[in-house]
Amino acid sequence: MPKYYVTTSIPYVNAEPHVGFGMELLYGDVLARRARQLGADVIFSTGTDEHGGKIAEMAAQEKIQPKEFSDKISQRFQDLSKLLMISNNRFIRTTDEGHEQRAQLIWKALEKDIYKGKYVGWYCTGDEAFFTEKEVKANNGICPNHNRPYDKIEEENYFFSLSKYTAAINKAIVTGEFEILPVTRRNEILGVLKEGLEDISISRPKEKISWGIPVPGDNKQVMYVWFEALMNYITVLGYPEFEDFKNYWPADVQVIGKDILRFHAAIWPAMLMSLDLPLPKQLYVHGFITIEGKKMSKSLGNVLHPNDIIEHYGLDAFRYFFLRRIPSYEDGDFSWDRLDEAYNNELANELGNVVQRTIAMITQYQGGKIGNLPEAGHDIAQYEEALRLCKFDRAMDEIWEHVRGLNQYIDEEKPWQIAKQNEPEHLREVLAYQVSSLLSIASLLEPFMPDTSAKIRAIFDGGVVNSPKTSLFPKHDEKPKPKVIASKDENAAG
After folding, report:
1. Is the pLDDT of residue 236 over 90?
2. Is the pTM of this model over 0.85?
3. What domain range includes position 143?
């Protein structure tokens, strides 16, 4: 049985989850479900990133320990996975004992490329990130994400020899060994590589940041949170000795947001090269979501939790919108009007309607008995290629071509006229094809809308119509009012 490994990024627990990371989970879920459909043995991992000064600072504000604070927020990300029916079978936390131990093993394995030096520069605790003089000047000394000055720091840290891997990473990307999608993100990181990578600081003094994994052999230093967090993709597999690591690495696809491209397309490949490990086969980089044309912001009252949508429209409508109506390769916008339009016109009028039409006609003309099913004959080559390239919106377009094609088939064949003409055999053939086509559509839908897929299959199970009491997508006349989620930081992960 072939092995398949897919990951999402692990969001920082400085904020509550919202639709941005929910969308990323959907992308990983589609890939995992499709791989299982094709017979693969799948590991699908997500999780939470929980160390660093920001977490210690926020925990202190609530007068609780960092671990307790992390437990609370991490649980909400786990709840989000359940809410969205995400099929991950691994959830890693960087505070897990196994991760912390294996992170130290990785550090030791990287020591040939680690040296101690003095860091003089800029840092933002809110981002848990170092910034260059050029970046700080461009923002007039104020972090745009947190609206506060960057911290000027001068400290003795450990450094990783990132610069020595510039040429090797460039070659891996150019040759396709390390495929980055879309091409705009590929070109972006190639531009960074052309300028040359610089060695990076990978630790912080424990006296300044106590909430972190200690550097092996130096109890005065802790690992830089971003450097340590990247290790999760192999620690979750039990690096270096577990069979899962040996069988599943390299990852088939790693799904991330565009804001963390450099970490995953430069630092992470260099770490793997230093460990003499193969690079991920594919890095898929998605865009951001705006709300009614505006950045999600607590102050604007437009930060959405997926449940705000699911409570009114249902889970599969949520999955449908973010997988089809949000561009897979670009930023996308959510609005209640766009969601309502998609729900009523595409889910209710097109998919829901063709299912109900088929149910009604088989019930009326054949006493609910379906009969032998022919092959639907759907061409899915473009669907498969779209999924290979992580073009989820395009793959769904292909499904909807079949949905609309089936509605057109019914309109052209006019089963009601065939019934009037008393042609029972012809009628059975037409209706049987409708069912066959719907079952084929249900199979294609399963990675995207698993509940809807299961309902369609259940309706026609056993060769008879098992008519649902309600339509798959009952129409809604009123749109819900958006809710604001309680967020500690409006720049939530994802």
Report:
1. yes
2. yes
3. 3-161+199-249
